[in-house]
Amino acid sequence: MHEEALRDPPRSPSEEAPHQQEQRLARAAALAACAPVPARIGNALAGTAGWTDPTLVKSHRFYPKGVSSPAQRLKFYASQFPVVEVNSSYYALPGPGTVAQWVERTPPDFVFNMKAFAPLTQHPVEPVRLPPDVQGALPASLFDRRRLYPADLPAEVRDALWERFRMALEPLPQAGKLGYVLFQFPPWFTATRGNVRVIEECRRRMDGLPFAVELRHGSWGMPGRIERVADLLRDLGAFYVIVDEPQGKDNSMPPTALVADPRLAVVRFHGRREETWDAPVGVNEKFRYVYDPVELAPWAETVARLSQEAEQVHAIFNNCVSDHAVVGARGLMALLARRAAAPADETALVPAGAAVH
C-alpha cells in the first residue's frame, strides 16, 4: 500500500465525482472502524484539534445519542482518544476554572495540547476577544479597530496576555496532562533573523512549559534551512511540528519528518485541499478533506519510525469538518496496528528525514 500511495496518489475529493467521494468516505470509515480504542499504539497517540466543533456534533457520526453536554462530550472523546489539541485557546483565553474542569473529566493519562492565543503568535485579534479588563485598558482608538496586531498593543497589555495565558494553562502541568503548547506562526512569518528572535522570545515567555513550533511560510522549509531550523529548536528545547498539507504554495511547508527534541514528535494533518489552501475562504472550506487510506499509509510508516526516535508521538488531525478528523485519526492508528501485526520484512520504513508525499 505504501508504494502504491507514493506512485499514484488519489485525487483531491474536490476533483472527484460524487460517487468517488462516497467511495473515499467509505474506504476511510471502514479503515477507521479497525482502530484500537482509545486510538494509540505504543507511544504513538492520535487525536483531533478540538472536540466541540459544531459540524462534528451535527454530523451525528461520533457522539452517541444522549451525549450532549460539554462534560459528557469530553468524557466520551477521552474514551476514544488519548490526546486532544485545544483549538479554542487560539481565539480566546480559557479561564483556569474551565481548564481545571477538563482535568477532572478526563482519565489520568489523557493529554491536552494547547494552541497559543492568537496575539502571542503574531496573529491579529478582535478587541472583543480580549479579557474584559484588558479591553478596558485599551485606548478608544484601538478598541474601535476591527482587528489588532501584537505591535498595536501597549507593552503592558502584551505582558498581561502572556501572564493570563500561562495562568490558564496551570491546571494541566500540575496534573501532568500538558503535552505541548502550540505556537503556530502565521503564513507571513518568514525566515528572517528578526523572526528567529521572536521564536526565542516566545520560548523565554514559555520557560518551563513544553513548547512546539509550527511554521507556515515555505522559506523555513527550503533545502538546507530546514535542518538549521531543527537545530534552533533543539537548542531551545522545543518541538518541531511536522505537517501534512498542500504543497507548492508560499504558505506550504514540506512534510519533512524531523525530530528536534527526542521527548516528543508532533505531526499535524491539515488535509490537502490545494484550491483553498491560500484562498480567502472560511475554515470549513479550507479543511474539508477526507484522508484516503492510501494517503495515510506512508504516514503510518513515518509515525512508526518517529516512535523509535522520540519518547512519544502525537498525530493531530486538524481537518475538523464533520467527522473527517475523527476518521483520519482512527484510520492512522488502524494502519499502525496492522503494521505492528505484520512481519518485519513487509514494513520497510521511510528513510530518516524523508518527505512522505
UniProtKB/TrEMBL annotation:
Pfam families: DUF72 (PF01904)
SUPFAM superfamilies in UniProt: TM1631-like
Lineage: Bacteria, Pseudomonadati, Myxococcota, Polyangia, Polyangiales
Record region (Disordered): 1-22
Superkingdom, natural source: Bacteria
InterPro entries for this protein: DUF72, UPF0759_sf
Protein's recorded name: DUF72 domain-containing protein
